Predict the structure.
Amino acid sequence: MSQRKRPRDLRAGLADIYAAKTPAKKETTAAEDTGTPAETPPDAGSDERQIGRVGGAPAVLVEQQRQGLMRENAELRAALDRMRTDGQVTAELDVDHVLDRFPADRLPQAFADAAFETLVESIRDNGQDQPILVRPHPEETDRFQIAYGRRRREACRRLGRPVRALVRPLDDDELLRLMIRENEEREDLSLYERARFMRFLGETEKLSVRQLGKRMGLSAGYVSRLLRLPELPAPLLSLIGDPRSLSMRTLEALAQILERDAERQIDRILEGWGRIKPSSSPDGRARQIVKLALGQLPSEPGESRPIRGPGGRVIGQMRRDKDGKRRIDLSPDLADREVDSILEAVENALAEASPAEGV
């Protein structure tokens, strides 16, 4: 009688349920798989042969591994039974095995802002209260695809711990609908992120405006309006900072100026930016960009020049005011670690400079 194979892990068992419509394969013994004789189980009197080292490992480790496998098998059977009964199961998953099916709906800033740091601290101190939702990967038995909970996943990744997840069989439409509904209910997905996600989704999934509207529960007219919002180029993002607070009116104004010779407009904006005092808010700075492009913003007296980092990215402005005083304004989109690196580089340069160089 052939021995039943132990599932590799919970993911393999869940994938079996997810693909339950396919006929089960006939179980085979090791002899049938490889063409070699199956090993004969040791008889009851073979305990003496396990004293000392077995296969290069201490016998006590072999026994611990056996007991661990028995416990894991019991947990697997219980988890699979719950999924058969309830249609879902809660599991601890390796974050590297939880993948994205659809384009990311959040900007990188969402995984580095104060709210994210608070989430990381909360999970570190109190554990993960709310599980994420995933489905078994339809093609890979050891992977999953996420419906919602990306920030919780990334917080667990930061902490080096598995992520607690509800595993549920879902088709693509259900996965997308749950992904959208979660963000709508939380009301924390910005207008810029929503437009960006919709544009990526339309391109990658080859969806029309009407199809996008149907999937996202929005009118075709509103979808068209969102799709006209711009994907802001890096030079403008370096001036604006975090675009998640930009209003519809501001984004539409930016779209209009970028429709007309975007490269020339960006050069004009960068040239004039050093002669103004930037607003304290991202939306205010974006409106200043629009006015610079339209020639509507008076400039302050003085001189300035952009400071560029690797790849030509503008990381700040060096300014000289009308009294001759100089100052350096770093771009608002720089992360704290980038600012620390810049300050460290300046300090190192000052420490290495000789008195003859005027420092």
